[in-house]
Design goal:
Chain lengths: 281, 289, 268
């Protein structure tokens, strides 16, 4: 697969910080991938995210996004167009008091001509299902809606990659669903690479790939079913696993033969039905 | 005995204006002493409005709230006393921290109650232990703590007032699993120690299933159901229909039932599910150990 | 509750006045102010009143909205009127008691002044009632853009204004929430004498400032991530286009101004 993000031996410490926050990260992300970076608070996952569009630059090692070295100041805007960033707090990233003008903000900064801007703003709002709200004030929207406006503001730049730094941490379950499905749609239908920073295992379990971070290192990196089969390890570093995975893990421990790679309800129901019907024979 | 009771409690926002909205619609509830109650509902279902009535921050448009059988609005000048008896921890409570030291911030509520310094000292020390803050943190600035620690400082500030009823609005919002588990663990410990009533507003059925002995589901300004946890999960399908999540494990067992595997019990925690499955596997001779 | 304050007080509608180009509206408002201050007689003020009331009628905004905006200023108006009555000399003496002397000129001047101030308030309120704050900011930015050549930070000021418009309602909501949270801890926010009250505000103000700084910090990062680097080379989604109606409105206003000037000359 063609790579879009290459992270090589990335070390990072804050200026006059004693502790190294990132301790040698190597990670390649392919074009069109939907990867979750899972970790508890303080694991370094947000710090890693900030390296992907040059809010922070490596103390040692390198980060390359779509061929651009993030340490190269002269290409900063180009980089940020190609790799957009959505933040945790929906309120603190919306600039304008009118939805459509907020979506246009980046395009205005980049000097995109009016006709083109109008077209892209409308397309982006439609893509996140917020077109009907284009003239509303963001203050009257729900958290999930605000976050979708923020996403529209990023995709209006036509990025190749979107980095999302815990975009659902402050939302209610409905908002989380809205945002997650909008993001998935961007990935599936528009082929945009998604890097989702999260501590919600249910979101991570629905991505294509999960990298688990702990203490500034990546300790697991695989498809979700393989990652979550490491129940004991994940629990030890303070992460959740899906309830069904935990159940199957518990059953296995009691000596029952059931797959350890079950992460969805459907898989679990199927496995249990099979277990009981086999016994009936 | 009911420590808190609402009678036909109704609240209308911006009454008389074009933005008028009924946030609580004839709510009748009885909350007994010593219970842990999980309050669940969509954003805007009325749950936040409800808890702000319990400690007199909002005044009902209609109906009454009784604390120990007494209308809390009977004498307006007593409302501050009501707030000492019914402690309310807001969402993201760390944003209300303002004192220079952790000690002072925890003591703020107690000082407002007019307690003596020696009493305050012993309460702060005790509460800090209860919430899992080590003693050497008490003299440091609350702004230097981690997010989870700040949250616990803010909760301790209300706990130290020793309210008869402790209400927490989404106490784990935005925290990671470690921070979340630690807070719930300390809340449960606090409850075991004091036997005071605890009300927790939450979006997570999975968390409430583990902690609460009763669950109140609010929907569209009304009480949708209010019962013991097990009985509430017996209505999992209805709850899903109003758009609320039930624990993944409950959904699995509902699905199994549809396929003819009925265990005759409501399942809402993983541990119970495992026990139940093992028991039935043994009974059917599929598994013997 | 703090929430009930509406900043900028914009009343969305689709009247002719609402649809006017905001740049023209600002210019017209200025001419209107000049018009009121050039008028020296009751006749010219009457013409000004005709202009004001016609505009209010066209805007379809109920008169009671204007009454509401003038009401809080009534004490100030009354005091100014009194001072004028007491200190203006000339004309016939209407009333005299000890050192208090009221003259017909005094009455004339104060009545004139009150009408003028009321008309002024109505006209300027009309601008904010019919133009959303964000449009207004935008129009100010464009009207002032020639000043950029003199290194005046026009864009920066406009950006600050529009960010303020976005965040003031949020901060108001936040203040409400912090007040409730501190009340829940037994704080007495709204009682006691002035010294106590000021001290009682500390638990509200400190968290509010901390939060405002945090928001500002996060917003700055988010803006940089969306390639913001000042006003240079920016294009705009909001297009301001002038139409014939804008020129007509401007012409009508200038006409009124010239009528008033002529009236002044004739009645001199």
């Amino acid at each position: 697969m063609e790579k879009i993000i290459e992270i090589k031996n990335l070390h990072f410490r804050y200026e006059n910080g004693k502790k190294e926050v990132l301790k040698g990260i190597d990670l390649d992300i392919g074009k069109g991938e939907f990867i979750a970076i899972l970790g508890h608070n303080g694991s370094g996952k947000s710090t890693l995210a900030k390296h992907l569009n040059a809010i922070l630059v490596p103390t040692e090692g390198s980060v390359t996004v779509d061929g651009i070295d993030t340490a190269d100041d002269s290409k900063l805007f180009e980089l940020r167009q190609r790799a957009g960033m959505v933040f945790q707090n929906p309120d603190n990233q919306i600039v304008s008091s009118v939805v459509e003008e907020d979506v246009a903000f980046a395009l205005e900064n980049l000097g995109v001509p009016y006709e083109e801007m109008r077209k892209r703003v409308d397309e982006s709002l439609k893509a996140v299902n917020m077109y009907d709200y284009r003239l509303h004030s963001p203050n009257l929207l729900s958290g999930g809606q605000k976050q979708r406006v923020a996403i529209a503001g990023i995709i209006a730049m036509r990025p190749k990659c979107i980095i999302m730094d815990e975009p659902t941490a402050m939302l209610d379950p409905q908002g989380r669903r809205e945002v997650f499905s909008a993001v998935r749609k961007m990935n599936r239908e528009h082929g945009i690479t998604i890097v989702l920073i999260t501590h919600y295992m249910d979101e991570a379990s629905r991505c294509d790939r999960v990298a688990v971070m702990d203490k500034g290192r990546i300790i697991l990196d695989d498809v979700p079913s393989k990652v979550f089969s490491q129940v004991d390890m994940l629990k030890k570093i303070g992460l959740d696993v899906p309830q069904v995975t935990e159940l199957c893990h518990g059953l296995r421990k009691s000596g029952i033969e059931i797959s350890e790679e079950i992460i969805s309800e459907e898989e679990c129901v199927e496995a249990l039905l099979k277990l009981f019907s086999e016994g009936g024979k | 005995m009911a420590v808190l009771k609402t009678e036909e409690l109704t609240y209308i926002y911006s009454e008389g204006s074009p933005f008028q909205k009924t946030a609580l619609d004839h709510v009748n509830l009885e909350i007994n002493e010593g219970e842990i109650i999980g309050i669940i509902g969509h954003t805007g279902s009325g749950k936040s409005t409800l808890i702000q009535h319990f400690n007199g921050l909002l005044k009902p448009s209609g109906g009454r709230i009784l604390l120990d059988g007494r209308d809390i609005w009977a004498d307006k000048s007593d409302i501050r006393e009501v707030r000492f008896q019914v402690g309310l921890v807001f969402q993201y409570p760390e944003y209300q921290i303002f004192e220079e030291t952790v000690y002072n911030d925890i003591a703020f509520g107690c000082r407002n109650m007019g307690l003596s310094e020696s009493e305050i000292k012993s309460r702060v020390a005790e509460t800090a232990v209860d919430i899992g803050l080590s003693e050497d943190l008490l003299e440091s600035s609350p702004f230097e703590l981690s997010g989870g620690q700040k949250r616990r400082v803010a909760i301790a500030g209300v706990m130290a007032m020793r309210p008869k009823v402790l209400i927490l609005d989404e106490p784990t919002a935005g925290l990671d699993p470690v921070g979340r588990d630690r807070i719930f663990q300390h809340i449960v410990k606090y409850h075991e120690k004091t036997h005071n009533t605890v009300l927790i507003v939450s979006h997570s059925m999975e968390d409430m299933a583990r902690i609460a002995n009763k669950i109140l589901v609010m929907n569209r300004s009304k009480v949708f159901c209010y019962d013991e946890t097990e009985k509430v999960f017996a209505r999992a399908e209805e709850i899903t229909q109003i758009g609320l999540d039930v624990p993944q494990i409950t959904k699995v067992f509902a699905e199994l039932k549809k396929h003819g595997l009925d265990f005759g019990k409501e399942v809402y925690t993983v541990d119970y599910a495992r026990e139940l499955l093992l028991k039935h596997l043994r009974e059917r001779g599929i598994f013997n150990a | 509750m703090l929430k009930d304050i509406t900043i900028g007080q914009y009343f969305p509608s689709d009247s002719l006045i609402h649809r006017l180009d905001p740049r023209f509206k600002i210019v017209i408002t200025f001419i209107f102010i000049v018009m009121l201050f050039t008028g020296r007689s009751l006749v010219s003020l009457g013409i000004g009143a005709i202009y004001t009331f016609t505009a209010v009628f066209v805007s379809k905004i109920p008169l009671k909205m204007f009454v509401r905006s003038i009401k809080p200023l009534m004490p100030f108006l009354i005091i100014t009127a009194f001072i004028n009555i007491l200190f203006a000399n000339g004309g016939d003496v209407v009333f005299k008691w000890r050192f208090i002397k009221i003259t017909s000129d005094g009455i004339n001047v104060s009545v004139f002044m009150i009408i003028r101030i009321i008309l002024l308030l109505m006209g300027t309120s009309l601008l904010t009632y019919t133009t959303s704050p964000i449009t207004l900011t935008d129009a100010v930015e464009r009207l002032l853009s020639p000043l950029k050549k003199l290194k005046f930070p026009v864009h920066e000021l406009a950006m600050m204004m529009s960010i303020a418009l976005r965040f003031i309602p949020l901060l108001i909501e936040e203040t409400d929430r912090i007040i409730s949270a501190q009340k829940a801890r037994g704080a007495e926010i709204d009682s006691g004498n002035i010294v106590n009250r000021a001290r009682n505000l500390i638990p509200v103000l400190i968290p509010l400032f901390i939060s405002a700084f945090r928001r500002a910090d996060e917003l700055a990062t988010a803006m940089e991530c969306r390639c913001y680097c000042g006003g240079e080379g920016r294009t705009r989604l909001r297009q301001l286009k002038s139409a014939p109606r804008d020129y007509i409105a401007l012409a009508v206003t200038v006409l009124f101004l010239s009528v008033i000037i002529s009236v002044n000359i004739i009645f001199q």
